[in-house]
Amino acid sequence: MNLEKLQDFCLTLPGTAEGFPFGEATLVFTVMGKIFALVDVDAFESINLKCDPEDVEELRERYEGVLPGYHMNKKHWNTVLFDGSIPDRLLLEWTRNSYDLVVKGLPKKTREQLG
Predict the structure, then answer these.
(1) Does 115 have pLDDT greater than 80?
(2) What is the DSSP string of the chain?
(3) Domains, the chain, with CATH or none
């Protein structure tokens, strides 16, 4: 995975914006103002993704490159390492799942704006 591929994918998702609200190193992807992914652009070692609480522990046990969310609520977020242990296809699938979880939590009117 590289930064450009991740950015291209995230920005294809409806209502997605990117920014640096936590400083120049942390790129944050949001949907309608709500965070669904964070990545350190300097180190580019991992990404934080929202995860269904029912799947959090299973993913951590199954994949060595999945850890509790760094600086995030460990019940809802995972940190996924870019160490080659997670295929890009799966990483992008989890990114989409993170986006979908955030969209699901948006008010109905906001979700309707996404189409």
Answers:
(1) no
(2) --HHHHHHHHHHSTTEEEE-TT-TTEEEEEETTEEEEEEETTT--EEEEE--HHHHHHHHHH-TTEEEPTTS-TTTEEEEE-SSSS-HHHHHHHHHHHHHHHHHTS-HHHHHHH-
(3) 3-107 (3.90.1150.30)
Entry pTM: 0.94
- Residues 49-89: tens digit of each pLDDT: 999 999 999 999 999 999 999 889 999 999 999 999 999 99
Instruction: Measure the CA–CA gap between 35 and 2, rounded to whole angstroms.
Output: 20
Nearest to 33 by CA among 22, 48, 18, 13: 18
Distance CA 24, CA 77 (A): 22
Q: Give the integer Cα–Cα distance in Å for 3 and 11.
A: 12
What residue type is assigned to position 92 of the chain? L
| Type of residue at 109 | K
